Amino acid sequence: MANEKFDAIVVGAGPSGNACAYTLATRGLKVLQLERGEYPGSKNVQGAILYADALEKIIPDFREDAPLERHIIEQRLWMMDDKSYCGAHYRSEDFNEDKPNRYTIIRAPFDKWFSKRVVQAGALILCETTVTELVRDAHDKVIGVRTDRDGEAIYADVVVLAEGVSGLVGARAGLRSIPKPDTVALAVKEMHFLPRETVEQRFNLEGDEGVVIEAAGTITKGMVGTGFLYTNKECISIGIGCLISDFTESDQSPYGLLEAFKNHPSVKPLLAGSEVKEYAAHMIPEGGYKAIPQLFGNGWLIVGDAGQFVNAVHREGSNLAMTTGRIAAETILDLKTRNAPMTAHNLAAYKARLDESFVMKDLKKYKNLPKVLHNKHLLTTYPQLLSQAAQTWFRVDGVDKKSKENEIVKSFFRTRRVKGLLGDVLGMARGWR
Amino acid sequence: MHIVVCIKQVPDSAQIRVHPVTNTIMRQGVPTIINPYDLFSLEEALRLRDRFGGEVTVVTMGPPMADASLRKCLTYGADRAVLLTDRFFAGSDTLATSYALSYLIKKVAQEWGEPDIIFCGKQTIDGDTAQVGPGIAKRLNLLQLTYVAKIDEFDLAAREIVIHRRAEGGIQILKTKLPCLVTMLEGTNDMRRGSIEDALRGARSEIVTWNAAEAGIPDLALCGLKGSPTIVKKVFAPSPRAEKAFQIEVQGKTPAEISDAVIGEINQRQPGLEQDIQKMAAGF
Ligand SMILES: Cc1cc2nc3c(=O)[nH]c(=O)nc-3n(C[C@H](O)[C@H](O)[C@H](O)COP(=O)(O)OP(=O)(O)OC[C@H]3O[C@@H](n4cnc5c(N)ncnc54)[C@H](O)[C@@H]3O)c2cc1C
Ligand SMILES: Cc1cc2nc3c(=O)[nH]c(=O)nc-3n(C[C@H](O)[C@H](O)[C@H](O)COP(=O)(O)OP(=O)(O)OC[C@H]3O[C@@H](n4cnc5c(N)ncnc54)[C@H](O)[C@@H]3O)c2cc1C
Asked: What angle do CA A189, A125, A326 make, to 5 degrees?
């Protein structure tokens, strides 16, 4: 048993690790996956929306047995102030398609399902096993890992770090630094159980149709963050998150924010009568393109949240995790078939492939956005102005429409002045480009 | 030496809820665990094996998904795991369960040698009857030691065992002959953490899976619902205890301030606690 060697060791059994281990194992590599949780998914928190495309590229027939909740046919974007929301809703029958594009899922059963597929593909998985350090040879190449269990180190040609946002193993080995507080959000989430019919009535749904609400505004009390509400079959996931750096500067607690969000007059009726079954908190990497650490080196690769692969604007994370996991696996498989060693030089192909994919292209597009969002007016002043404007517009009170228009325009200028307005627009435009 | 350990996969009772209206147990989505009592007997079995050599075989009767608990036993260091699973066993009460398990153990004995000792937990956390162990002992005509708190002596050559047994009003120290069946109390030991080698072996091992016919169970009419005279008349939730959990409101910003405030509040409500902890700490 001593000096047992694998083709690859994958650290972590979240979406990125599972995607990587599955892709490697189906192609016949000897894969060991290590997960510190009691079972895959036991530690993981997500909203959660599953983007089908990323998974389909790995397991084309996943719809046959994956535990999916509802496919999303309606998206609501809400700008909220303390009493109101001003929203854009998009609902289309086109989303009731053969192979829907987005689903709500519950992470624990989903991760378990994914992991079962990984085992069936031939990988070996050890749960309740935490990787404590990387083992290196005389040339500083990573050649294996040590765990918190007694016994020998385990060796592999390459170690894939799919360890999630904290990136501790990589940081401890000096491959990267620990993410900074202004690049990581803390999100809290609850599951509210309701009878299926109630969920369907409240959200105007039939069968497995689902609705997603993304919300921003005064609900985050001036901090950078968003709230969300997703419909599952028999429950509603609701959560809110803000940058850790903002939490430390303010006297707000994550739980306090969630309580206030739940009690917002527009949200409360949606949850009425539900039973809360689960409360969870988790970090989300939100530093974007500029926070991405070194992704490869001699004998190692970083995938998923550990590499800061989250598109905060579009709330995409698990799909980037799966895609980076798959691309890492394809890079390794390619080197294996060519009998090329897993050196930094050869593994650089991983980064090159990522640059060509939507993952890097999207993150690059928004590379300045995290800074723009730090403009407090975006999430407090504007939602309030918007709400006032809407109210002025809709109220019928004997004031003529022309005066109403003038009042609305004036309110914007009064509050932000010409320079402020222009700066905000330019900043947004630049961040978006 | 050959040791057989009976385990049961049970719903994690800490996470079970009783439906407020219908009073039925809501098992959906509740994670399953190894019956906690069975971990004490498994650890005791592993210790004996480590001292005297031999093999530990873990067995369970349950649905196919019970293999997860068996695999876990392998990662703790058990040598072999056997799952008895068949639709005929659905709805078994303790009579039918001990009937099936006794034949399963006979079959295990044929395959891998007569057990010198069989372990069960004192009871399960879902059925709570504490009847299955004695039921097996009776059917296999074995001596039985129930409510065992500690194994004092184990002499394989003399085929003798001496144990502490918790009894009403005191502790009995009993000696008996091997082979015998032991049901272990809680808190008797700490479950080990398997080494990385155990974990790898556990992940790789096949779990021996038998149906009723393969296990050689002679009379299916004595199994499952058919073989179970027990009728559950009513399930109800006991009214909550008077002593309620309370929420501690604290001021403070830093984690250190908050934890200090929480500890201060607890000490105020439980005056003797701090002293007890100090005493305990001094004992280490
Ligand atoms: C509240 C919330 C809502 C979200 N909503 C969405 C959404 O709707 N859609 C979406 O696409 N994304 C969403 N995300 C993001 C998404 O959850 C992540 O991007 C995704 O889980 C990343 O996958 P991963 O495999 O990289 O990391 P993780 O899922 O975090 O998995 C990492 C795994 O590694 C294990 N691990 C860590 N360290 C070690 C170690 N040393 N040894 C062994 N194992 C270790 C962990 O236990 C864990 O299982 C959300 C996140 C949060 C917190
Ligand atoms: C909600 C609920 C409903 C039930 N309904 C019925 C019913 O309708 N009809 C009915 O007849 N019975 C019913 N039962 C009883 C159920 O069948 C018993 O749980 C089972 O027979 C075992 O008894 P026990 O759990 O009390 O085990 P105990 O006797 O308390 O267990 C002692 C030890 O025996 C061993 N052991 C027990 N079971 C197994 C096993 N399956 N495999 C291996 N070892 C084992 C373990 O070492 C355990 O620690 C119900 C139980 C519950 C929780």
From this structure: 70
